[in-house]
Design goal:
By secondary structure, this protein is mostly helical. The chain has 2 domains: about 170 residues, no CATH class; about 110 residues, no CATH class. It has 12 helices and 2 strands. A hairpin with a 3-residue loop joins strand 1 and strand 2. Helix 5 runs antiparallel to helix 6. The chain is globular and about 70 Å long.
Length: about 280
Amino acid sequence: MNNVVFGQYYPTDSVIHRLDARIKLLAVILYIVTVFFIVDYVMYAALFLFVILVSVVAKIPLKVLLRTVRTIVFLVLITAVINLFFTKGEVLWAHWKFIKIYKEGVEHAVKLALRLILLMLFPSLLTLTTTPMELTDALESLMSPLKLIKVPVHAIALIMSIALRMIPILMEETNKIMLAQKARGADFDTGGAFKKAKAMIPVLVPLFVGAFRRADELALAMDARCYSSVANRTKYKVMKLTLKDLVASVVCLAVFSLVFLNKYLFPFDEMILSLFK
């Protein structure tokens, strides 16, 4: 459970950390949309390189960032297997009558696995380089036009921020409960899937009780401090766009635009293959 990175903040002094949270949040949203438009392996490699470069500039160790992938290994394997055996096309390998692997299935499985990994890496950089308070302010600022139609923007941003902040806390609590259960003789590592799931019941019950207790304590603490989401609130730190934010925006737009150009104008895979013919 200590390997869960998403939702945790990695405090270092870097250019990425000092960027406006609104720019980083918009970049992540555009990045997620862009990933679904990738068609060539060249662009998968380009986006992986882009994520690595951002991680290096942000002074985030790659081993910390790559821990994110561990949380979705099971999902990647399941989706890859489904695409591998159920996508019809040119047969590459056949065993008996009901087990066949198709060329298109292999391609879809590889691309889907790469897509899922990419979808986890860059958003993790957002939480690693941005504090929950900065994310709250960024969300509230970006959603401020919705106030015109009476949408509780501040309350929504606060809820999302608290939920994000609670992820590492709950993971730490889960780890403590599992260690306590292991000290009492519980076994979480052996047996089949059903046995492992059954062994998690003694973990889930105190975890939910602790989560509800923390929520109640947080509500009481906010109430004791006379917190109100509908009051006119001022900001200790006023967000302002600077030159480095503009440069980061241009770089991100250039990288993401390359993906769209690749899809609709310049298929790089076909261009590279034509060079070897």
